[in-house]
Design goal:
The complex is a heterotrimer of chains A (about 400), B (about 325) and C (about 375).
Chain A lengths: L1 H4 L15 H33 L30 H33 L5 H15 L3 H12 L10 E3 L3 E4 L2 E4 L1 E4 L3 H29 L5 H19 L4 E4 L2 E2 L4 E2 L2 E3 L1 H28 L2 H9 L4 H31 L3 H4 L4 H13 L2 H30 L6
Antiparallel strand pairs in A: 1-2, 2-3, 3-8, 4-5, 6-7
Helix pairs in contact in A: 3-8, 3-10, 3-12, 4-8, 5-8, 6-7, 8-10, 9-10, 10-13, 12-13
Chain B lengths: L1 H14 E3 L5 H8 L2 E6 L7 E2 L5 E2 L1 H14 L5 E6 L4 H6 L5 E7 L2 H6 L2 E3 L4 E3 L1 E6 L13 E6 L4 H11 L4 E6 L2 H9 L5 E5 H10 L6 E7 L3 E8 L3 H19 L7 H7 L2 H7 L5 H5 L5 H8 L3 H8 L29
Parallel strand pairs in B: 2-5, 2-6, 10-11, 10-12
Antiparallel strand pairs in B: 3-4, 6-14, 7-14, 8-14, 9-12, 9-13
Chain C lengths: L17 H9 L4 H27 L9 H4 L9 H6 L1 H6 L7 H20 L2 H24 L15 H28 L3 H16 L2 H15 L4 E3 L1 H27 L2 H9 L4 H31 L11 H10 L8 H30 L6
Helix pairs in contact in C: 6-7, 7-8, 8-9, 8-11, 8-14, 9-11, 10-11, 11-13, 12-13, 13-15, 14-15
The chains are: A alpha+beta (about 400), B alpha/beta (about 325), C mainly alpha (about 375).
Chain lengths: ~400, ~325, ~375
């Protein structure tokens, strides 16, 4: 991009050494290199002498020593006797978990609210505007506090849990639901599920091809749902239900067993979803507005239903504008998930830059490791979204 | 161009400071200000009021040192520090003295290049539960959820205690005491654990303080005290003896009200402390009335305790371990002679 | 022959005009719409009365201690006394009373410096307006500090409250302007080493959570200076904020550069302008113009992010609120009031700025869309 803008460098025949742009470029870069080298040399030598003077250990040896503290929630087995390395892993997985859920929900909320702006219903349109303008303009940290201490803390106590059919419980300690435990033969059902997914993909391709050739539409959506439910159900019946449920039960203090979703996770997810959703709604709005009005009119004139104009004509074109914006919103969501530390959700930041740094005092190693992790996650998102961007970009006339 | 760069340099100079190597006492005297690292908000220990004035038991140590060195307890620059930056701030010379409810431990004393000047509050980690649980002892807490106020040793003590007793628990960690209290109050956890001094502060913050009780178990020793950098013994002595002066004054019955009278016509021990006899101040490199200034301006330890955390404060903490050795506590100052 | 005479116009059917017509088209056009409208309405009726009562009618407004709110007969709504008692702390931090005019003066000066390019006649703009703008952070900091101007010294430990949020955000974005412009230029440069350094800088400061950068400023930076040199914490945070902001602004400028037509470069070259003349006189003004809405959006983000400073213990407004909540004379739980106040203050500022930004956008918008 930059190359085309610059005039071509022509060799200068006369003039001094310094008038040659190539020589000058070399000199500038040499100066920059020297400056940077000096800068880093100073920093590193200062840091080393300071750390020695202050008795701060350096290196990554601490990753193999026992951490000695407990963590509220972990996706892998963890106890206080595990190492800091394991702590790092627990935090990393929790960060990834909240990021994925947050991105998924924020996208849904954002698209709904963004499209709602164009609703003919006055109330829905106002709702969309009020939602975007309220949540976009209040610091996220405050919103995290709001969901955690105002909304979720208002849920009932453990003893008065809201229960749904004695199997799902909701209270101030979180949401508890039964866990599905595999028995022998469950592989058959999973295989059926996989087969159903493959079948749906094949079906979609076939239906698309048929529509191109004959113009007939095939009810792909309903058939897909039928396959997705039917096939595994059939397998379930044939194999004689190789699963059982483990129900959550009230023990003396807490609810035990089953799967639990802690309120910290819920609050953080809610805050991230609502906050990022507002930005995504804004992006969707901008995207839809970028589609020329003639497109909608043309769609109406060929007799498309009002509800299909949005999904078939407008949104696909709007995606060209929306996807680059989504990319940066997803990245900020991941970065903003560090606010977990304010309410104690054990993400990477809380357990590593929070508790572990408090215990070990090895600021440089810990802060750099954490930065590197977020950097890598964001680069991955950027990479994936650029792939998506390539696929939605219109093939323009050359 | 020259003007521009000089203005930028001036702007930077506002924030940059080079600490001379002469010794902390000279630096403080030259500056006319004591730079003291405190906690940014810990009820009864260091807190700001709506006028921006600092008060608290830890803050009183800063004030005492300023009174001893500069003759004026108000000549203190308070630097609120987080738990993570406190030692770095001390080591880099950003603060002359750290009085930020810091537990005296072997590791910190030996490996961080610090010296603990003494203990100004004997604390210990305890538990608070809701009365309606019917729990009478921490040993009945197997399976409970615990709200933990994140500290540096709190989480480790908790893990150790439950592991040692073969019990399980769920750790819900919060950053500040206010957040911990809100978590406990909302029913997020059955038990709240923190240093005992903070349990009282948290308890009076509850909507109904009588609904919660502090359990008798104390699971750790937390001697809290002021800290200075290693390698400046003169300064170390000043901080240590400023603290002892607070304690010794209470032991000798000298307080801010009677200090003038005692100075003139007190017993020999009182006169030695207040500088009318002997040369205690001179030996520290301070003026003779160093301890007089402390007691006159800050009060003795007992006054400071009552005002900040004791019966004269909303916290209403009993003296307990923090009473004089002849009153059933373990507060003991070496004699000034 | 009978002359044609139009009948008087019939009034439109009742259900297409007036409030009823409006409701029919805007609220109940389809059954689904009707259901949605009714449920939104029901929700509002359910929530609003209690909220308004708590906020206004049963709230306690007058007094100076929390006893006013807990006393017999006091309203059981919000305790706004908490906010009014701490108001000075929330806005100015612990800045000493007799010196408060300096904070106010600096705030006014900030407003003037920003408005200067619009107010000043054209030939003063570049000679006075721009240098003032770029030097404001340094002069302002020195003024609040006071030593250089011979005023009473107020150390940064006394600075705080909402004014600190404003100053930090403004001072950071002002310095980030030239810095990020350089980075953006470097990213377009032909020199491979310069380009890669700029790309790394930009991507690093954009790809890392701002909270991690704050921790870097608070616990890592002190280790990087030689022994005996200490840098004020606020200055460290400022440096971090400038770098963070520069990363984002550089990307904004990159977008701006891409919007400048190739012909502008060629025209400048054909006039024989040097690289810097071309960049500063021809390209830069156009880049600023097209980037303005994005610059404002970035600023709003930075402004909201200054609340994260709470976590490293800087006394900005949210941290002041939390300190107030732990004060032993205010322990009876006023979190909701405090947070609502802070939220409202931020909302007003950010909403105002996004209004300005969309105005500018509309003014710049030359496309013809329905």
């Amino acid at each position: 991009m930059s190359k085309e803008h610059m005039p071509e460098v022509r060799p200068v025949k006369s003039g001094s050494f310094f008038n040659n742009p190539r020589n000058r470029a070399l000199i500038y870069q040499a100066i920059l290199l020297f400056g940077l080298g000096f800068f880093f040399y100073t920093i590193v030598s200062n840091a080393l002498s300071n750390m020695e003077a202050r008795g701060i250990k350096s290196g990554f040896g601490f990753l193999f020593t026992t951490s000695g503290f407990d963590i509220l929630m972990s996706l892998v087995d963890y106890s206080a006797t595990d190492t800091y390395g394991r702590t790092f892993l627990v935090g990393l997985l929790n960060t990834i978990l909240v990021s994925i859920i947050g991105i998924f929900l924020a996208t849904i909320v954002g698209f709904l609210m963004g499209v709602a702006y164009f609703s003919p219903n006055w109330l829905i349109k106002r709702l969309s505007i009020v939602y975007v303008e309220t949540f976009r303009n209040i610091p996220l940290l405050l919103q995290v506090f709001f969901w955690y201490f105002a909304v979720l803390a208002a849920l009932p106590d453990v003893r008065d849990s809201i229960s749904f059919g004695e199997s799902v419980f909701l209270n101030v300690r979180g949401l508890f639901f039964p866990e599905i435990i595999d028995e022998a033969g469950s592989g058959f059902v999973y295989a059926a599920l996989a087969a159903a997914i493959v079948a749906i993909i094949v079906l979609r391709k076939w239906a698309h091809k048929r529509q191109d050739e004959t113009g007939d539409q095939f009810p792909v959506f309903l058939t897909s749902i039928g396959i997705l439910i039917g096939l595994p159900l059939l397998a379930l019946i044939v194999s004689g239900n190789p699963f059982h449920l483990e129900y959550p039960e009230a023990s003396r203090f807490n609810i035990r067993g089953g799967i639990s979703v802690i309120p910290e996770l819920m609050a953080l997810t809610l805050a991230l979803t609502v906050y990022t959703g507002a930005f995504i709604a804004e992006a969707v709005r901008a995207g839809v507005q970028s589609v020329p009005h003639g497109q909608t009119e043309a769609a109406r004139s060929i007799g498309l239903k009002e509800s299909r104009i949005m999904s078939l004509i407008v949104v696909p074109q709007a995606m060209r504008v929306i996807v680059p914006l989504l990319n940066s919103e997803y990245q900020s969501l991941v970065k903003n998930s560090t606010l977990a530390t304010a309410i104690g959700y054990p993400d990477l930041f809380t357990v590593f830059v929070g508790t572990s740094l408090n215990q070990t005092g090895q600021a440089i190693e810990i802060v750099f490791m954490t930065m590197a992790v977020y950097f890598v996650i964001n680069m991955t998102i950027s990479f994936l979204m650029n792939r998506v961007n390539d696929s939605v970009a219109l093939a323009e006339r050359k | 161009m020259l003007k521009l760069s000089s203005i930028i340099a001036a702007g930077l100079a506002v924030g940059l400071s080079f600490s001379a190597t002469a010794g902390t006492l000279e630096d403080v005297k030259k500056r006319g200000m004591l730079s003291c690292g405190v906690s940014s908000g810990l009820a009864g220990f260091s807190q700001k009021d709506e006028k921006g004035a600092w008060s608290g038991l830890d803050v009183d140590v800063c004030r005492a040192v300023a009174a001893a060195v500069l003759g004026d307890e108000s000549k203190v620059q308070y630097k609120p520090l987080t738990a993570k930056e406190r030692f770095t701030a001390l080591q880099s010379g950003e603060v002359d003295l750290l009085s930020r409810n810091t537990t005296w431990t072997h590791t910190r004393d030996t490996s961080l290049g610090l010296n603990f000047a003494g203990v100004n509050y004997y604390d210990g980690q305890g538990f608070m539960v809701s009365k309606k649980l019917g729990v009478k002892s921490a040993m009945e807490l197997d399976g409970a959820s615990a709200c933990i106020q994140a500290g540096t040793t709190t989480e480790l003590n908790m893990a150790d205690y439950f592991r040692a007793n073969g019990m399980k628990y769920t750790a819900v960690t919060f950053d500040t005491s206010d957040l911990t209290r809100q978590g406990f109050e909302s029913g997020r956890c059955d038990v709240l654990t923190s240093d005992q001094s903070q349990l009282y502060a948290i308890r009076i913050g509850l909507k109904d303080p009588s609904s919660a009780m502090v359990l008798p178990e104390v699971i750790s020793k937390e001697p809290l005290g002021p800290v200075v950098s290693q390698g400046d013994d003169a300064w170390f002595n000043i901080v240590r003896w400023s603290m002892f002066a607070l304690i010794e004054a209470e032991f000798l019955g000298v307080n801010s009200a009677n200090v003038d009278k005692m100075k003139a016509e007190g017993k020999p021990g009182q006169k030695r402390l207040l500088g009318t006899e002997g040369d205690a101040g001179e030996k520290l490199g301070l003026s003779a009335d160093w301890a007089y200034n402390i007691v006159k301006q800050v009060g003795n330890y007992g006054e400071s305790f009552e005002r900040n955390v004791g019966m004269g404060s909303p916290l209403k903490i009993a003296r307990g371990l923090n009473a004089q050795w002849n009153q059933g506590g373990i507060l003991y100052s070496p004699p000034v002679r | 022959m009978r002359e044609f005479q139009a009948l008087p116009a019939q009034p439109a059917p009742v259900d297409t005009v007036g409030p009823i017509g409006w409701m029919k088209t805007n609220l109940f056009s389809t059954p689904i719409n009707a259901v949605v409208s009714i449920s939104i309405f029901a929700f509002l009726v359910y929530v609003l009365p209690d909220t308004i009562d708590w906020l206004f009618f049963s709230a306690n407004w007058v007094g100076s201690t929390q006893d006013v709110c807990s006393a017999e007969g006091a309203g059981d709504g919000a305790c706004w006394v908490f906010v009014s008692a701490w108001m000075q702390q929330f806005i100015y931090g612990s800045y000493p009373d007799p010196e408060l005019w300096r904070v106010n003066a600096a705030l006014v000066a900030l407003g003037l410096v920003i408005a200067a390019p619009y107010l000043l006649p054209k030939h003063f703009r570049n000679t006075v307006g721009v240098p003032l703008f770029l030097l404001f952070p340094f002069i302002g900091a020195a003024f609040l500090d006071g030593r250089i101007f011979g005023l009473e010294y107020v150390s940064t430990d006394f600075w705080g409250g909402f004014s600190l949020n404003i100053f930090l955000a403004a001072a950071s974005i002002i310095i980030a302007f030239p810095l990020s412009f350089l980075w953006a230029l470097g990213r377009r440069s032909d020199m491979p080493f310069v380009r890669s350094v700029c790309v790394i800088l930009i991507e690093f400061f954009r790809g890392v959570p701002v909270l991690a950068l704050f921790f870097m400023g608070s616990v890592m930076l002190p280790l990087f200076f030689p022994e005996g040199v200490t840098i004020d914490k606020l200055l460290r945070v400022w440096i971090v904020l400038i770098l963070f902001m520069s990363g984002y602004m550089a990307e904004v400028f990159r977008g701006g550069f891409q919007a400048i037509p190739q012909g502008q470069y060629e025209a400048a070259d054909s006039l024989g302008l040097s690289y810097w003349q071309k960049t500063l006189l021809i390209i830069f003004p156009q880049v600023i113009k097209v980037s303005m809405p994005n610059i404002l959006a970035t600023f709003v983000m930075l402004f909201k992010n200054t609340t994260f400073l709470l976590i490293i213990g800087i006394f900005e407004i949210l941290n002041t609120t939390q300190t107030a909540l732990t004060n032993s004379n205010w322990l009876e739980g006023h979190a909701a009031e405090g947070y609502i106040f802070v939220g409202l203050v931020f909302w007003c500022c950010c909403f105002g700025m996004s209004m300005i930004s969309s105005n500018i956008e509309k003014k710049l918008d030359t496309s013809h869309r329905s």
